[in-house]
Amino acid sequence: METKKITIDRPFITLGQLLKEEAIIPTGGAAKWYLKENTVLVNDEADDRRGRKLYPGDLVTLPDHSQLTIESK
């Protein structure tokens, strides 16, 4: 399985912002519902906080087992 690289131009991105920017959810407000209904792993640990800060080097695994890794610009 391939890991998609997400490049950010700021110190961090929140989990909710990442889900919205990757079109996994339609709006930022949908993040809370999405994270309650689906298991999202951050660095192999389940996390349901839409405000979770993701930094370069973090790995996010989605319910369909696709993976996103955060990189800095």
From TrEMBL:
Sorted UniProt keywords: RNA-binding
Domain of life, source organism: Bacteria
GO molecular function, one term: RNA binding
PROSITE patterns reported in the protein's UniProt record: S4
Stored InterPro entries: RNA-bd_S4-rel_YaaA, S4_RNA-bd_sf
The protein's name: S4 domain protein YaaA
Species: Limosilactobacillus antri DSM 16041
Encoding gene per record: yaaA
